[in-house]
Amino acid sequence: MFPQDPPSGAPQALAHLAASPLLAHLNSEQLAAVTLPAGHALILAGAGSGKTRVLTTRIAWLLQNGYATPGGVLAVTFTNKAAKEMVTRLSAMLPLNVRGMWIGTFHGLCNRLLRAHHRAAGLPQAFQILDTQDQLSAVKRLCKQYAVDDERFPPKQLAYFISGCKEEGLRPGSVPAHDSDARKKTEIYQLYEEQCQREGVVDFGELMLRSHELLRDNAAIRTHYQQRFAHILVDEFQDTSKLQYAWLKQFAGDTVDGRLQARGSVIAVGDDDQSIYAFRGARVGNMTDFVREFDVRQQIKLEQNYRSHSNILDSANALISHNSQRLGKNLRTVQGPGEPVRVYEAETDTQEARWMVEEIGQLVQHNGFERMEIAVLYRSNAQSRVIESALFNAGMPYRVYGGLRFFERAEIKHALAYLRLLENPHDDTSFLRVLNFPPRGIGARSVELLQDTARTAGCSLHDGVGAVAGKAGANLAAFVAMVRALRAQTQGLSLREIVEQMLESTGLVEHFRSEKEGADRIENLQELVNAAESFVMQEGLGRDAVALPTQSPASQGLDPDSPAPDEPPARMPDGDTGETLSPLAAFLSHAALEAGDNQARTGQDAVQLMTVHASKGLEFDGVFIGGMEEGLFPHENSANARDALEEERRLMYVAITRARKRLYLSRAHTRLLHGKTRYNAPSRFFDELPEGALKWITSRPRGWGIPDSGALNGYSSSAKDPFGFQSKTPSSPPAVLQEAAPAQGLRAGMAVFHNRFGEGRVLSVEGRGDDARTQVHFPRHGTKWLVLSIAKLTVVDC
DNA sequence: CCCGTCCGGTTTTTT
DNA sequence: ACCGGACGGG
Q1: Quick one: pLDDT band at residue A773, thresholds 50, 70, 90?
Q2: Average pLDDT of A362-375?
Q3: Nucleotide nearest to A131 (CA to C1')
Q4: Cβ distance A58 to A74 under 8 Å?
Q5: Residue A352: helix, strand or coil by DSSP?
Q6: Is the CB of A521 under 7 A from strand B?
Q7: pTM, to two decimals
Q8: CA–CA gap between residue A665 and residue A624 (Å, rounded)
């Protein structure tokens, strides 16, 4: 998974620095980055350039040479996986304990900060964290309560709006309310905030925003951390949002008269060419802002790639050079050209998948590839189905990434809701989730009654139960009593025992035992017990301390971090020395912040299937990228705006650079999508790859020939189109116009003329007869859908 | 309360 | 085509 050591050591001039074993095997760029003097720096780290290694070695080097103390290091990553990786590698490099360091995800560190300063942040110490699902259900509940028109304001959209506002750093009071719609949404945002505050819960956005405000508004706390963290390191900086960047600045120093007076050194590591998360708030512009606002003097590019052969790298470089907005970077390798990038054009998506499976079989059988080292990447999840079924039919083991993660499964969320109620009975979201699960005769009527009562009294549902009379009241009271009894029973038990007792008392396991599909769920619940057993205490994140042995009474709380000896004398709690959380509360935070594995677990050597997004940061010997078609990749929703198109191109860049030895690109003429057959033109990205690095292997003889597979399934399109496209270079459209596939002889790639829009290029054609429609891109008017029976189109050029 | 049926959405995703 | 959520009858 990690690039091999560079073949030669550092250049002579720097050789003395490399004397330390820590620095051995670094190339000169890496060495320069690791040994940067104090000050802010931007490291542009290309794909496969040893970025993580540089980051961790930098920290180790700072510590080893006494330039930093563990307590003075703050390292932020984006995912738990990356944080864990950093901790693991760091502890392999240094005997030192990593306990004093703050290494974790943005949200994990926010959690740590807010727990330590919950009072100043205005939160209960045991605040619960809402994940996206929880947030949505909280919004739905709110909408119901205030009778919000869910046609006009769908809860989903409201949740999105609220998250967006927080991401921008906006509280309801400062949201610009242009129209009545915006005002109404903001009003709901306000109510949502009040609800969360009342219930003692925070969503992901709130974790970030609240801790940003905590630092911004509390000089003592801010100064404390600014003095403490002399070294701040940020991974995947290109993925940071506006708020995350603002958050970092609070740690770095105060802004006086518009100028940032940073105390510590901030090192941002990132790759603008791999910025693929703009759609969820990432702002590549943070990189240039960082250089300007921090007055960055040191910029280092890591361009030496240790991963791929040069045909692959050349392809990546050529492709990305078509982007206009770049900081500029060119990957190089000392490995030879290697195999050409193979391009395959299939008739149908099914055939494309079948070809992939065949090819994978070859790689495994004849080229000694491990299945695990082969990945099939696609732009969208919908594409996985055909590939899966082809693999399945061939009996080839595979593993699909994505889907529900462990802590997101319904039965697990139910169990967690009970555990949360033990910590905080006023968490209405959790209360409602399990109030009648397993069923205990509390129907919608009773719930409404209770909600009304609680609303009138201005209290939580839990506290409102006493005021509900009658049969409904009795059932409700029984539920509350059950939870209360459970709370009493679990006093002093270990985390594992608490979970077991909960599963027992609430009847969850019992309930699933009687369900026909309950076996899996029971297994998952058992897995939750195991997770509790092996839960490693983590304040902040990425701190994998010791697994809890059968621990001393829970009431003792966590063994607090022994403050690092070199800790600056601090009177305030700072996440290391502050009040500690109960193991249960810590476990619940862990569950919310780290949803766990989402990959079907198999010990087996299996082919890996995933979206291109999910492949970021991974590498494989062989990589297949399917569906290289206009509309799919680049995706049709992105093809028209330049920024969006450039992000698609970066996405393709990420996909290409995953491959070490073999890269395959493929496309299909015909694809079944949303139940309709689509005819897609080849992806424009083919035009942007260097012809010399490619090899077109479509197993159809050039020019004439019997299609080897086109007629296999009797697809109507292949019957009418016996020759398919000719196998040829991608940059020019097919030389010979074949007979119409779908309608009026129109095919993707053709140039057409429209009386009003002028000349344009056909992107796709779908449907037949009177329903036939075509998507045409007109240079001056953008992309239009035209119904063939209505629009007058003339074919200009094939 | 459970189960069937209809309807809508369907790029990418972490925390 | 297909999945998940919402709704209504048994």
Answers
A1: low
A2: 96
A3: B15
A4: no
A5: helix
A6: no
A7: 0.82
A8: 6
Nucleotide nearest to A137 (CA to C1'): C5
| Residue A52 marked in a binding site | yes
Active site residue A52: yes
Closest residue (CA) to C1' of nucleotide C1 is A675
Q: Contact at 8 Å (CB) between A232 and A198?
A: no
Mutual orientation of helices A180-199 and A155-167 as an angle, nearest 10°? 80
A611 touches strand B (CB under 7 A): yes
SS (H, E, C) A390-405: HHHHCCCCEEECCCCC
pLDDT at A397 over 50: yes
Length of chain A, in residues: 798
- The token pair at A233 is 């390191």
Structure token digits, residue A68: 């930093």
> Strand pairing partners for A696?
A343
The answer to whether strand B lies under 7 Å from the CB of residue A593 is yes
Is A51 among the catalytic positions? yes
Q: Which of the nucleotides in strand C have any atom less than 7 Å away from a protein CB atom?
A: 1-2, 6
Spanning CA of A447 to C1' of B3, the rounded length in angstroms is 22
Please give the Cα distance from A391 to A398 (Å, whole number).
7
What's the CA A183/C1' C6 distance, rounded, in angstroms? 28
CA A778 – CA A250 distance, rounded (Å): 48
* Confidence at residue A665, expressed as pLDDT on a 0 to 100 scale: 98
Helices assigned H by DSSP within A117-218: 118-121, 132-145, 155-167, 180-199, 204-217
Nearest-CA residue to the C1' of B14?
Answer: A79
A385 CA vs C1 C1’ separation (Å): 11
Is A648 annotated as catalytic?
no
A485-505 pLDDT, tens digit each: 999 999 999 999 999 999 999
pLDDT in tens, A652-668: 999 999 999 999 999 99
Tokens of A726: 């000719």
Average pLDDT over residues A546-575: 36
Spatial separation of the C-alpha atoms in residues A578 and A265, rounded to whole Å: 26
- In sequence order, what are the residues at sequence separation of 6 or more whose Cβ sits closer than 8 angstroms to the Cβ of residue A495? A532, A533, A535, A548, A551, A554, A583, A584, A587
From A293, A288, A203, select the one nearest A250 (Cα to Cα): A293
- Catalytic-labelled residue, pool A29, A35, A51, A333: A51
Rounded to whole angstroms, the Cα distance separating A97 from A108 reads: 19
3-state secondary structure of A159: helix
3-state secondary structure A503-556: HHHHCHHHHHHCCCCHHHHHHHHHHHHHHHHCCECCCCCCCCCCECCCCCCHHH
Specify the nucleotide whose C1' lies closest to residue A674 (CA).
C1
Give distance CA A348 / C1' C1 (Å).
16
In tens, the pLDDT along A325-348 reads 899 899 999 999 999 999 999 999
Bridge partners of residue A547, in order along the sequence: A536
Selecting among A30, A105, A274, A608, the annotated active-site residue is A274
Distances, alpha carbon A445 to alpha carbons A148, A377, A641, A761, in Å: 20, 49, 50, 59
Nucleotide nearest to A438 (CA to C1'): B1
